[in-house]
Write a structure and sequence with these properties.
The chain folds into three domains: 156 residues, Jelly Rolls (Sandwich); 44 residues; 45 residues, Arc Repressor Mutant, subunit A (Orthogonal Bundle), CATH 1.10.10. 32% of the residues are buried. The chain is α+β, with helices and mostly antiparallel strands. The protein starts with 5 loop residues before the first strand and ends in a 5-residue tail after the last helix. The protein contains ten helices and ten strands. The strands form two sheets. It has a six-stranded antiparallel sheet with strand order 1-2-9-4-7-10. It is globular, with a radius of gyration of 21 Å. Strand 5 and strand 6 form a beta hairpin. Helix 2 runs antiparallel to helix 3 and helix 7 packs across helix 9. Helices cover 43% and strands 21% of the residues.
Length: 282
């Protein structure tokens, strides 16, 4: 869908979430409602908002950088502004939010009701948004496992602070049972050459994505995406020392389809580039 007031945009599509960074020209909009939840955070300065109305809530104040609004699914609204603004829009699938609510706190679908929010500022929301912004700027350098983990953080934060019925978070400080942890680690090592998804790792562990992220970190001391990246770099180092493959081949063998992205990760991990570590390949 192409809106006439959008001059530039960049989109990241994830399971249950679309992240859309765009520059919007001055306009007035009447909005009849949408089947997904919307959260829009202002990235730029100098906003000149005339009106923001979502449901019965209304504001005629301009927004500051980092301010956001939440429009729950099926809620109508209207907006009018006279500035050119850069924003980050999160389009959230209600089913994904409901599933997360059930996993983390036992809420039923009927209890997952996001609160209409206007001109709010939340340091945690802004920090999550900035991390997604970096992913958009770098072409997803963190990888799908990283962005899916960020999605979980965002959804849980919304449930905790912007839901009419807040879930009771379950706590478990014991980490993953040893046999389940070994299954996950073996699976990761077997499939380092392809994109790994949070859902499949959680399925191997036999638990929800939310609990998998928490328990894996308790067991290993780092997040799943950090562990996967670490293991990819270690395998790359081993392959480079063998001298049987080009850098491009090594990149593919450890699941990195973008060679320049692989080189950046490698240098950050070891302090040298793949070429500096390995032999000189043609």
């Amino acid at each position: 869908m192409k809106e006439s007031w959008i001059s530039q945009r960049c989109t990241l599509e994830l399971p249950g979430l679309i992240v859309d960074r765009h520059i919007s020209e001055p306009n007035e909009l009447d909005f009849a409602g949408y089947h997904h939840h919307l959260l829009c955070l202002l990235l730029s300065d100098g906003n000149q908002q005339k009106i923001t109305q979502i449901g019965e809530q209304k504001s005629e104040k301009s927004q500051a950088q980092g301010d956001f609004w939440i429009c729950p699914a099926e809620m109508s609204g209207c907006w009018a502004w006279s500035s050119t603004d850069e924003s980050l829009m999160f389009v959230i699938n209600p089913l994904s939010l409901s599933q997360t609510a059930a996993e983390v706190g036992g809420l039923e679908t009927s209890q997952v009701e996001l609160l209409t929010t206007i001109n709010a500022h939340d340091p945690q929301i802004e920090a999550i948004a900035r991390l997604f912004q970096v992913e958009l700027d770098t072409g997803g350098i963190g990888g799908q496992l990283y962005t899916e983990s960020l999605t979980q953080v965002l959804l849980v934060h919304l449930l905790r602070h912007y839901c009419a019925f807040q879930p009771k978070m379950q706590h478990n400080m014991g980490g993953l049972p040893t046999h389940r942890l070994h299954l996950v680690l073996d699976y990761i090592h077997s499939y380092l050459d392809r994109s790994l998804k949070l859902a499949e790792l959680a399925e191997v562990a036999g638990i929800s994505q939310y609990h998998f992220c928490r328990l894996f970190k308790q067991s290993m001391g780092i997040a799943p995406y950090q562990y996967v990246l670490q293991q990819r770099m270690e395998k790359a180092k081993e392959l480079l020392h063998q001298g049987k493959h080009t850098i491009a081949e090594v990149s593919l063998l450890v699941g990195c389809t973008d060679q320049s992205r692989f080189a950046r990760h490698f240098k950050k991990h070891f302090g040298v580039t793949p070429r500096e570590l390995g032999k000189k390949f043609p």
